[in-house]
Amino acid sequence: MSSRDINRANFINTKLLGRKREPIDVRSEEDPEIENIMKTVETETIIDREEVMEACVKLLNEPLHVLDKDFAAGGLTFAFNSSMPPQMVALDASQAWIVYWIANSMMMIDPSLLTNEIKRKIVRKLFLMSKDNGPFGGGESQLPHIASTYAAINALALCDNIDNCWNKINRDAIYKWLLSLKQPDGSFTTCNPIGERDTRGVYCALSIASLLNIMSDELTEGVVEYLQQCQTYEGGFGATRLGDEAHGGYTFCATASLVIMNKLNSIDIEKLMEWCAARQCTEEMGLCGRSNKLVDGCYSFWVGGTAAMLEANDYHGCLKKEALRKYILNCCQSKTGIALRDKPGKNGDFYHTNYVLLGLSITESKFYYHGDDKTNRTPFDILSKSLSVKEVPSGLAFINPVYGIPNESLQEFHEHFI
Ligand SMILES: CC(C)=CCC/C(C)=C/CC/C(C)=C/COP(=O)(O)OP(=O)(O)O
Ligand SMILES: [Zn+2]
């Protein structure tokens, strides 16, 4: 991988998934592409809290908008089949993510949208991103990355073992590679040797390993202790154990990792519940990712999914789900675009479409565990059923909050590897 590729991958991972930090100095004359991306980022409209509140309150007072499924689905199908729009060039190292976001959105809206032809395209594209059929990079000829591998495995889980593709996944190579990323403090790097080490790596590693049934004591050694150190005084989790601010993305990753290991009881759950409840903005009723920050539709999953996992474990009521649902339906559907969005004033995108839809499904579901045996719980035992809502339910698929994919696909994929 050239230093330009490393810079670009770092930049994209930081912007898209990473924690807040000083901008990386990647602007150089030799790289006009990155120069352009930086310009777009810098000129992005800064939305003021007052403005957001005003726009949301106006929209929240309107009659509830019902998700325009045909519009959204048609748009997504088009986006997947056509070539990438220019702004997507910026996501060169995130192609596995894009495939997962689009496929998962389609699956949640209507599984028949994901035709065999589209599934074959997904499988073909994903395996091109890997030299040995796993682990996966962010695009063709890119080095493997833990987040790309996570996204690729999730996307493959949606493809129904078409053409026996699940047997093609190189589980041995993935297991060895995951072990090679393991750090003495219990965390995982995102890729070697330049990767970041934080709760994202832990979650991606455990999600991949549990789905492919390659979990081992060696993989999970020290992980609980690492995550315990990431819980902050506020109750949420920071990126690392070095005192980072609690954030919705990292809190989801830590909570889901603990649920996968059936170790939720090893952290301060009451504080975590308080922290989740405090994420619901009192005017907009959507969720923010951290203290004193703006509401954003994607936290309907990162924080909403955390609350759903707590609910399954009998810690109910962190969020006002009906009010969050209203925020999603009235404020996250862009009237002009095909996609779902962060907040009024923003454009829709694939990332927000997926996580807002996951969040919407959560607001219409009750979460619980199958069976009474608390000591042997697995993340695959989490079930959901319909929670009655005031207006018409959206009819989205029920999802598993640990993996962020519909229950049906999850069960089928998981059972394949038992
Ligand atoms: C599985 C996996 C890799 C998950 C990643 C989860 C994660 C860290 C999500 C957060 C992503 C995000 C857009 C943060 C924005 O920070 P910001 O400072 O721009 O936004 P804020 O003001 O809302 O904090
Ligand atoms: Zn967002």
UniProtKB/TrEMBL annotation:
Its cofactor is Zn(2+). One of its GO terms (molecular function) is protein farnesyltransferase activity. Its EC number is 2.5.1.58. Residues 82-386 form the Prenyltransferase alpha-alpha toroid domain. One of its GO terms (biological process) is prenylation. CDD domains: FTase (cd02893). Binds 1 zinc ion per subunit. It catalyses: L-cysteinyl-[protein] + (2E,6E)-farnesyl diphosphate = S-(2E,6E)-farnesyl-L-cysteinyl-[protein] + diphosphate. Pfam families: Prenyltrans. Catalyzes the transfer of a farnesyl moiety from farnesyl diphosphate to a cysteine at the fourth position from the C-terminus of several proteins. The beta subunit is responsible for peptide-binding. Belongs to the protein prenyltransferase subunit beta family. This is Protein farnesyltransferase subunit beta. It comes from Maudiozyma exigua. The gene is RAM1.
